[in-house]
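Work Package 4 report. The design task specified in the project plan requires that, given a folded chain encoded as structure tokens, an amino acid be chosen for each position. We show below one input record used in the internal validation round.
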């Protein structure tokens, strides 16, 4: 709503200029008030008025030729009279006499119309007609090549004007809508802030509990709510802060955590926020940057997660300390067969698993020392309280 309102306000100047132009054009066309076909009618009238004397002379001569002495009407009438005299001698001549009679009436009618169309010179009417034609011509130069196109332009201009005049109503509607939505958003943000304020210490405590199990016993974890302008995320930003060692001030995770610490913080948050009907969790190299005791702690924590939550935990790892806690271990290898690279997945058990853990430990799958170390890892993982049920 705010974006729509801003866009509407930003376009106010443009719309105002457009409205001024449309207002002028509508007024100009309405002042002339053209009619469909009016220009053609006026051109014909002007032509008659300009040649009024010539037309009057011609029409008068034609009328005299038809009705004057010795004219067409008289001549046809005389012919009709002669034929009528002969009807008694030749009955077939009656039809010809009738036709001549009709011709005489038609000639008289045409002569009457010619006299009715006699145009007398009228300079005043001619000037008025020319002025009107000039007005219509100016409209056609600006708004269309015909009177019809000018009137069509007028209709379009009125439609656009109505839409522009409605923009004020749109702005008022958007302002009300924005105010209502802003109120709702602020109320929702307030509820979210309350929920976050209540959840923050719980999340921090739960994360710290997992971090202790991940060999970070002294790390202090905090959830900070930092006020900000209302946004899609509410009225505050959420920041995760850590103090890795006692006496240090808490700083953002991204700025203070080492690679191994970052991996374990991420893992702790994943474990804390796993809720709902979760049957399987997959961790891809969540132990990056971790080694030694910390790596064993990660493996133990993942094993406990599988056991305590009763879910399947799948872990992609390069660390033998983590792999040793798995109920089932698989080796993923890439091989080149011909001109193709193929990835294979194979379960390792018994001696094969000892060899694979040895390879992961020292890169020497046949080393007796490495194998002994691998057996010790498996024994530690299998000890009471450390078994990783359903961990792969």
């Amino acid at each position: 709503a705010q974006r729509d309102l801003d866009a509407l306000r930003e376009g106010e100047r443009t719309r105002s200029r457009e409205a001024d132009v449309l207002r002028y054009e509508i007024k100009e066309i309405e002042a002339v008030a053209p009619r469909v076909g009016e220009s053609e009618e006026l051109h014909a009238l002007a032509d008659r008025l300009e040649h009024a004397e010539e037309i009057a002379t011609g029409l008068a001569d034609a009328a005299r030729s038809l009705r004057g002495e010795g004219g067409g009407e008289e001549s046809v009438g005389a012919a009709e009279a002669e034929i009528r005299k002969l009807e008694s001698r030749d009955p077939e001549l009656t039809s010809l006499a009738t036709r001549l009679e009709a011709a005489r009436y038609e000639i008289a009618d045409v002569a009457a119309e010619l006299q009715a169309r006699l145009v007398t010179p009228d300079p005043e009417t001619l000037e008025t007609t020319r002025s009107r034609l000039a007005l219509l011509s100016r409209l056609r130069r600006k708004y269309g090549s015909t009177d019809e196109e000018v009137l069509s332009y007028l209709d379009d201009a009125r439609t656009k004007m109505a839409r522009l005049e409605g923009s004020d109503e749109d702005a008022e509607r958007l302002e009300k809508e924005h105010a209502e939505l802003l109120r709702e958003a602020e109320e929702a943000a307030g509820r979210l802030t309350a929920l976050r304020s209540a959840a923050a210490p719980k999340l921090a405590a739960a994360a710290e509990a997992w971090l202790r199990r991940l060999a970070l016993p002294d790390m202090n974890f905090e959830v900070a709510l930092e006020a900000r302008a209302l946004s899609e995320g509410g009225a505050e930003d959420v920041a995760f802060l850590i103090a890795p060692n006692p006496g240090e001030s808490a700083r953002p995770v991204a700025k203070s955590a080492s690679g191994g610490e970052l991996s374990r913080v991420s893992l702790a948050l994943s474990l804390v926020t796993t809720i709902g009907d979760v049957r399987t969790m997959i961790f891809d190299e969540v132990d990056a940057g971790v080694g030694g005791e910390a790596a064993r702690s990660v493996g133990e924590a993942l094993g406990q997660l599988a056991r305590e939550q009763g879910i399947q935990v799948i872990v992609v790892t390069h660390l033998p300390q983590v792999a040793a806690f798995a109920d089932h271990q698989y080796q993923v290898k890439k091989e080149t067969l011909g001109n193709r690279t193929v990835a294979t997945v194979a379960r390792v058990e018994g001696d094969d698993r000892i060899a694979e853990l040895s390879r992961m430990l020292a890169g020497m799958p046949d080393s007796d020392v490495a194998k002994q170390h691998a057996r010790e890892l498996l024994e530690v993982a299998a000890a009471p309280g450390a078994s990783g049920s359903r961990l792969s």
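The CA atoms of residues 189 and 234 lie 5 Å apart. Validation will be extended to a larger panel in the next phase.
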